[in-house]
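User: Please work through this fold.
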Amino acid sequence: MPHQAKATTGKRVARQGAMLFSGFALAQVLSFARNAIVAHWLSKGDFGVAAAILMLLQLLETLSDMGADRLIVQAKDGNDPRVVATAQTTLVIRGLLTAAMLLALAIPMAAFFGIRDAAWAFAAAAVVPFIKGFLNLDARVAQRTLDNRPQVLIEVVPQAIGLALTVPMLKLFSDYTAVLWLAIAQAFTATAVSHIIAHRRYALAFDMHHIRRLVEFGWPIWASAFPLIAVYQGDRMLIGHLVGMEGLAAYTAAFMITMVPGLIAAKVANSLMLPLLATAQDDGHRFAERFRMMAEATALMASLYLAAFIIAGGTLLPLAFGANYTGLANLVGWLALMWSMRMLQAVPGAALLARGITRPFFTAGLIRASGLLLAWIILLSGGGLTGAAAAGAIAEFASLAFITWLLNRIDMPQTNAEPYHLGNALAVRALLMIPAGLLALGVNIAAGNSVTLLSTATILVAVSLVVITLAAITMPDGKRHLLAMRAMQAR
């Protein structure tokens, strides 16, 4: 590719990346602010009940995901109206099935958590997937040409509406019921926005050829969801059952504060990394070049994120959620380690999807699920919430190691005799997390309990500068690309 074309593409990617990051970050900040207000307002027990309801909702939505929206981005004919209409039909079916499962599980799950009086709320949550089943997927079609504005609006507007309604709902209901109605309001808003901004007329179709393609592409994603619930819901279900609602509230608060960057990375992967890699899937050199750039950027973000939460997580949690959530610095640190490794997997995940390879997601999910058994053993032996989080981090590392090994075996179009070794490229760049984490941990130990909010901020800035300097020294692709862009601008 000519240097001028590379520079133009680079600028466009940079603009889209900045927009995606700022848009998804804004959505997560709005979501976090809403949850913080709810945590401050409700008792710890009511917050735990709300967390249990939302957890079941997320669990069933995860278990019903067939990846139809990602096929639209990955497939060469994803722009075909018939493909999009068939994908939208599968969303409707998914919404109906998920709603039915919620209704069926309402009473058993309420009994499992020891909150039988809340069974009606578990059942009422079925409205959420039913509404979201009618989302318009035209925003995914736009992503094929790196136009991510529609998807950003679908992410941000519902969160803004949810935040605006939080205090009125809490004043009206004053218990966990407010969270249920907020979830319904957000689902309605997201679906409405997807239709308002769509350029195409909403349509449904049942084309058996495309249905078979969707099933072939999506069944490994669907199957991998079963072990994935062990990572994102299983540990909290165990905590809710074995420790109680207050323990679940504490774990959920720490989980929420650490998951924001991880979710942003996953959303950016689907919205920016996937189309960039999919368009280069037939050119091994371009694919590998883009992959290395993405790996460097993600490794740097994951390292900065890990250092930040090791240093400041224990201070930020009670500031955000209230005095009931003090003394959880170690829990936040372990969860941050788990999420940082999950952030790294966004890059190989996008690479596999871009090549239409989805079966490894199931194996990776099974490896992550092993953490649930370890967490159960730790909880029964008195290891507490921190031990459960450590189990999740160990399982996430094992899954990352598997994906890294697998990347070296991807069959890529070769432009020379040498293999690309994408897994090795990811592993080398991920090593930045080791000095970042150890430096942050060492500074924390040296500072002890005498740090103030100002000194925490100062330490965080200093450690971040060291990590960025290390990245500049050890990551050649990003530095080379930046120098090329500067040279083009100087002409």
